[in-house]
Design brief:
233 residues, alpha/beta, Rossmann fold, six-stranded mixed beta sheet, four-stranded antiparallel beta sheet, binds adenosine-5'-triphosphate, P-loop_NTPase, amino-acid transport, ATP-binding
């Protein structure tokens, strides 16, 4: 579904952050990227989404080369990126956030919105509330619903549980598991690395801008060296 090959990228003229990182996500897979702080995990997601330009390497989505596409073109090609912050329009009501995100034909909006509100009842209960009044967990659910309304081929999630309470974290993990079970391809960076690997088909360990190890989620979660170095022992 997604293939990123030998990606080199960074910010401005400074030293590159990504130094030849490669990964792939097959149809129906949930794939998690773990690694130390500053390894370039978020940068890799941003490069795949087209928000940071790749200086070298190739990115394909469902067989289509998207390397030269802008972020907007990539969104149209089927990427949906839930950024870590500022991922909803705080000054707008929930229902208007959903309407802005929807990209299908006009006549299909009401049913798509209602289906999303059935999936995430908090959005129906609070449809007239301004998004900025939402808790962190509610905001992430809204951001995910907005991403899903674009009918993506793959969902990119950047630290979806950052700053959330344990309860909200569990609820968000449940929402991610539900999407995985429906076969939605997902690539995520997640601070709860062990828990994320345990629900993932596969994982990649990114170190200093390169994919240093890969395996099934269960293999990486059980590897003593990876546990010691990257999963808090
Ligand atoms: N907009 C930016 N401009 C310049 N440097 C940046 C920018 N964003 C990130 N960086 C730098 O790029 C490097 C990699 O950051 P990135 O956020 O991709 O790492 P990460 O692996 O996701 O880390 P963390 O787990 O701490 O979020 C860091 O040194 C960071 O300071």
């Amino acid at each position: 579904m997604l293939e990123a090959n030998a990606i080199v990228a960074g910010y401005g003229a400074a030293e590159q952050i990504l130094k030849g990182a490669s990964l792939n996500v097959q149809a129906g897979e949930l794939v998690t990227i773990i690694g130390p702080n500053g390894a370039g995990k978020s940068t890799l997601l941003k490069t795949i989404a087209g928000l940071v330009p790749a200086k070298e390497g190739k990115i394909t989505l469902a067989g289509q080369d998207v390397t030269a596409q802008s972020a907007l073109e990539r969104a149209k090609s089927g990427f949906a990126f839930v950024m870590q912050e500022r991922n909803v329009f705080g000054m707008l009501q929930v229902k208007d956030n959903l309407e802005l995100a929807y990209s299908g034909p006009r006549r299909g909006f009401a049913s798509a919105r209602d289906a999303m509100m059935d999936r995430y009842p908090v959005l129906a209960q609070r449809r007239h509330q301004l998004a900025r009044t939402f808790s962190g967990g509610q905001r992430q659910i809204l951001a995910m619903a907005m991403a899903l309304l674009t009918k993506p081929k793959i969902l990119l999630l950047d630290e979806p549980t950052a700053g959330l309470s344990p309860k909200a974290t569990n609820e968000l993990f449940d929402a991610i598991i539900a999407l995985r079970n429906e076969g939605m391809p997902i690539l995520m960076v997640e601070q709860h690395a062990l828990e994320a690997l345990q629900i993932s088909s596969r994982g990649y360990v990114l170190v200093a801008g390169k994919d240093a190890a890969t395996g099934t989620g269960a293999e990486l979660a059980a590897d003593p060296e990876i546990r010691r170095l990257f999963l808090g022992g």
